[in-house]
Amino acid sequence: NPVISRHDYAPPAFLIDTVDLEFDLLADHTITRNRMTIRRNPDAVFTRRLELMGEELELLSASIDGHACASQLTATGLVIDDVPETFELTLVTACKPAENTSLSGLYVSNGNFFTQCEAEGFRKISFFPDRPDVMSVYTVTLRANREAYPVLLSNGNLVETGMLEDGRHFARWEDPFRKPSYLFALVAGKLSCVEETITDASGQRKLLQVWVEAHDLDKTRHALDSLIHSIRWDERRFGLGLDLDRFMIVAVSDFNMGAMENKGLNIFNTKYVLARPETATDADYANIEAVVGHEYFHNWTGNRITCRDWFQLSLKEGLTVFRDQEFSADMAAGEGNSGGAARLRDTGSAHATKRIEDVRMLRQTQFAEDAGPMAHPVRPESYQEINNFYTVTIYEKGGEVVRMYQTLLGREGFRAGMDLYFRRHDGQAVTCDDFRAAMADANQRDLSQFERWYSQAGTPRVAVRGAYDPAARTYELTLTQSYPDNPAIKTAKDPLLIPFTIGLVGPTGTDLPLRLDGEAATSTPVFSRVFELTETRTTLRFVDVPVEPVPSLLRDFSAPVVVEYDYTDAQLAFLLAHDSDPFNRWEAGQRLATRALLAAARAAARGATPTFDAAVVDAYGLVLRDHTLAPAFRELVLTLPSEAYLIEQLDVADPDAIHRARQALRRQLAGALRADWLAVYQANRLLGDYRPTPQDAGCRALKNLALAYLVELDDASEAAALARDQYDVANNMTDRFAALGALVHLGGDEARTALDHFYRMFEKEPLVIDKWFALQAAQPGRPDVPTIGIVRGLFAHQAFTLRNPNRARSLIFSFCAANLAEFHRPDGSGYAFWAEQVIALDAMNPQVAARLARTLERWRKFTPALQQKMRAALEQVNAVVRSKDVREIVEKALA
Ligand code: HT7
Ligand code: ZN
To answer: In 3-state terms, what secondary structure has residue 807?
Structure first.
């Protein structure tokens, strides 16, 4: 594969001011006429050679200013020599949407047409300089058979519709905003919509639509509400409004990712649009709100201001992740519509709950990526296939980098930086440096050291030591930055500017006032402070400290780093019970459990029976019984660290030992706290209609966690009865699915009966059937029935297809990425299955295949016996792989 390097960036030789596209849509042979007004770029190296990208296209004609012109097809596109300074180029091409299984470019799903152009899909639609720094004004005319394709949509505003001969019709759309080709979209087919007209903050009327297949119309309300909430939130928080007269969301069931922010015409995976209580879980409702927000927020952070090149991807993705996280946290805290109502609710805990969920995900996935062969900086230096760089580092670590600006500059300073960014760069394609400069200039700050967060890969460690001097009443914290070794990382390891929030907790559990040596005493004491670490080693000397405190470090996870501090178990239990920072309360519980689980896993790997100290159980029991804590928060604390997270904490991981250790602790917690679990289960049963509010969802989550613990008991007959009853009476998918999960965990005839019942009940709901596949693929194996046998059986099920990414993910990814003990069975049966599926998907959909390939990239983490089998599977794939997507992943894994 050729390697594309950031340093090779050169401005485009030609600029395209307008693009006039006409489509004659036929599933097996679509004709596209593309008329472009082009001029030489005065800021680029002079050339008369126009080079356009193109893939899987048949060129039917090419003309310049109305005259046929010579052109040469190349391996990557089309070349036209001796072009004038300014000219109009018209290209007519043909493509085959029905044969397009990659779901990139123009394709057919359930008989309807859709496009996906980010990152490099437009080149499958027409020859074009398919790069984000070429921004043009688009006019699009769609022509198609009216009966088969009654709805014709594209970006911007609808300007004309009409009938044509032969039963065809047309629609013309104009998008007044200049945009890169990756934001182009069209949709054509049999779709229905729900719509609402709202008045925006400036008093203008805006038409909002959600388009779905007719039978899904009853599942659109939540997406439409989420869109309205997103618009209101962006107006209020950032002063940003909707700039088009209409905004459309379209749902499609065949889609590679979550959703796509095409200008005015967002295209979504059905999974992030469709919801009604009977079919969607609380998590689905929350995800829909977050993804609708994310795509809507891109309209300013991504579309109005876009990326100069794909190395700057985090400029739009990191910033938009941060925006969607803030939106979801505000919505959870009741700050969605009116700021005032929020004060009545438990806002601190709601914000903390969202923060914990986001950080848990970051640490489980991004920290692992940073420690493996695909490690890369937030602004990568090179890539082979850009689709492989839509990663948790670009998105989630990028979101943390943006959050750190806010932590360093304060909310108002951050907003000033955003305002300046929009004033300077609206309508432009820019870089991460431009964003940093806006933040720095708006706050008169030198943020040059902060650049290292963009250029250095790896997860920094901050080792902390504390020393109390009772005589001097001082407490000294020494903080040392470093990077762990990872041979895949070639970037520098210079000290970062780390915002590090600290509190000191006194023996009664309250925070002590913070004052550094040399600082004047203030009338209003400060109990939590952001310190800026800039050197390899920083010493903070606190004065007037009356007693030895327990340090509360990196409060609210103020930077994406690993904190190393040698807490005792007693100190962790103390912080879990008392820390005023809810994030660090949760963190203390996780540290306590992680330490116990790792020790137990090491014992299990030696063949010993894992055992646990009563202190862990007691600390968890206190939280379980603490009714002053919100149920959602208790559920997070009482959920043990995941097996994937635990694997990352070990030098040599044995997934089976980790699984057994985690199961042993679950069983011990179930047995020791049985009465409490039962009480919590009963206390959090909700009566009445289903509401997907964070409060209700929190009760359901805690109740269903209690059920999951209760089915671990040796005598689980009571739990089985509860599960059966819950399954039968549930008025929502969260409860029904949790009950089904409990029954499947118990196994036997009852599990089979419930699974059959569930399948029959939801046969016509593909998203629910995805859950049905996923649950079975993720179930623990039994000695006589390894899960791989069940997975292979389901692979042959009539409802299974590899061509639909959601379905493929529900079965294959749920097994390979979410059932680690079974996937890593010592006989290598999981790896053989993995290799088969990567190879099969590679020929069909390289993006999905490459994602699956990544589930084996951490193979060097495991025991030698497992490593050997994983390497063999990787080599098997490497020998036959065709796409550059999978090749990049497998080659880097084996390097
Ligand atoms: N900006 C989008 C990223 C994307 C994508 C979406 C759907 C299919 C393929 C895709 N490739 C890249 C989604 C987002 O971050 O909002
Ligand atoms: Zn995005």
So the answer is: helix
CATH class of 461-495+497-566: mainly beta
| CA–CA distance, 856 with 409 (Å, rounded to integer) | 40
Query: Which residue in 339, 336, 453 sits closest to 398, CA to CA?
Result: 453
For ligand 1, atom 14: residue with the closest CA? 260
Closest ligand to C-alpha of residue 387 is 1
Q: Tell me what pLDDT residue 335 has.
A: 76
pLDDT for res 552: 98
For β-strands 205-212 and 246-252, DSSP reports them as: parallel
* Lowest mean pLDDT, pick from 46-50, 71-75, 337-341, 833-837: 337-341
DSSP per residue, 615-651: HHHHHHHHHHH-TTS-HHHHHHHHSPPPHHHHHHH-S
Region of residue 85 (left: phi > 0; alpha: psi -120 to 50; beta: else)? alpha
Q: What does the domain layout of the chain look like in residue ranges?
A: 307-455, 461-495+497-566, 767-895
| Tens digits of residue pLDDT in 613-622 | 999 999 999 9
Atom 1 (ligand 1): residue with closest C-alpha?
260
Q: What is the pLDDT of residues 205-215, one digit of tens each?
A: 999 999 999 99
Rounded to whole angstroms, the Cα distance separating 772 from 775 reads 5
Active site residue 295: yes
Pocket flag, ligand 1, residue 386 (CB < 6 Å): no
Q: Phi first, then psi: what are they for 244, rounded to 5°? A: -110, 160
Q: Are 101 and 144 in contact (CB under 8 A)?
A: no
Q: 636 is written with which tokens?
A: 């997070």
Q: Per CATH, which fold does 307-455 belong to?
A: Neutral Protease; domain 2 (1.10.390)
Q: Is 633 exposed, middle or buried (0-12, 13-18, 19+ CB in 10 A)?
A: buried
Quote the CA–CA distance of 345 and 755 in Å, as a whole number: 39
768 lines ligand 1 (CB under 6 A): no
d(CA 405, CA 412): 11
Token pair belonging to 8 = 């090779």
Task: Answer yes or no: is the C-beta of 261 below 6 A from any ligand 1 atom.
Answer: yes
CB atoms within 10 A of CB 65: 11
Both tokens of residue 225? 């509400």
Contact 830, 824 (CB under 8 A): yes
| pLDDT at residue number 342 | 38
Query: Above 80 in pLDDT, residue 357?
Result: yes
Output the average pLDDT for the chain: 97
The three-state (H, E, C) secondary structure of 270-307, written as one string: HHHCCCCCCCCCHHHHHHHHHHHHHHHHCCCECCCEEE
pLDDT of residue 339: 43
* 266 phi and psi angles, rounded to 5 deg: -70, 135
Give, using CA atoms, the residue closest to atom 13 of ligand 1: 260
CATH number of the domain located at residue range(s) 767-895 in this protein: 1.25.50.10
Going from the C-alpha of 270 to that of each of 212, 250, 292, 320, 809, the distances in angstroms are 8, 8, 12, 21, 14
Q: Which one, of 306, 217, 227, lies nearest residue 266 by Cα?
A: 227
- Its sign, for the CA torsion 781, 782, 783, 788, is negative
* pLDDT at residue 251 tops 60: yes
Which one of the listed residues 120, 295, 396, 888 is annotated catalytic? Answer: 295
Interval 657-696: pLDDT, tens? 999 999 999 999 999 999 999 999 999 999 999 999 999 9
* Per-residue pLDDT tens over the stretch 233-245: 999 999 999 999 9
What is the reported pLDDT for 349? Answer: 83
- Partners of 36 in the β-ladder: 19, 89
The sign of the dihedral angle between the CA atoms of 19, 21, 27, 28 is negative
Answer whether 256 contacts ligand 1 (Cβ < 6 A): yes
* Model-level ipTM above the cut of 0.95: yes
Query: pLDDT of 489-547, one tens digit each?
Result: 999 999 999 999 999 999 999 999 999 999 999 999 999 999 999 999 999 999 999 99
Average pLDDT over residues 779-785: 91
